Amino acid sequence: MAGVRRGRTSSVLSSVPLQILFYINGFYYIFYFVVTLAMIIYKSQVFSYPDDFLAPDLALICIMAVLEALRLYLGSKGNLTEEEAPLGLSLVITVGSMILSVYFLTWQTYVLKADVIINTVLLFIYGLESVLQVLSIAAFVG
């Protein structure tokens, strides 16, 4: 009986809802990126889009795509391996992504109704993910 451990159980602390949200957000962000890029191109052709603002808007959507890929990778890795550091870094990057989403929701040169809808959905997903990330980090630490 020396090799038998009694009273010891291992529990999984990874968050399934968070992992599902990361998965859904990966597909939604591809949709978001394509639609936002198409709308920027559309606005530049239909409206008198100032040339000084077109390049920064395109650069910001590309920066946001890189941040999103990194955020989803770190968040998923941190959740599945039950490590606080990658999940915490993902949470910090989420704040940056939220700021960029708010930019495309309110501060870009022309804001269409479609911009409002897709950015509101993205911000809602970010909010849910943030709450679940904080709860997961608390579970991993505690």
Jot down its keywords.
142 residues, mainly alpha
Note down, in words, how this protein is organized.
This protein is mainly α. It has a domain at 52-141. It is built from 4 helices and no strands. The longest helix is centred in the N-terminal third of the chain and has 31 residues, at 16-46. The protein is elongated, with a radius of gyration of 19 Å. The two termini are 31 Å apart. The model has no long low-confidence stretch (mean pLDDT 92).
The largest sheet, given as strand count, sense and whether it forms a barrel, is: none
| Strand segment count | 0
Give the count of helical stretches. 4
Q: Look at the structure and give the mean pLDDT.
A: 92
Q: Which blocks of ≥5 consecutive residues have pLDDT under 50?
A: none
Morphology call: elongated
Radius of gyration, in angstroms, nearest whole number: 19 Å
Beta-strand residue fraction: under 5%
What share of the residues lie within helices?
A: over 70%
Structural class: mainly alpha
User: What is the string of SSEs from the N terminus onward?
Assistant: HHHH
Distance between the termini: 31 Å
List the helices and strands and how they pair.
Elements: H1 16-46, H2 51-81, H3 84-107, H4 113-141
Briefly characterize the structure.
By secondary structure, the chain is mostly helical. Helices cover 81% and strands 0% of the residues.
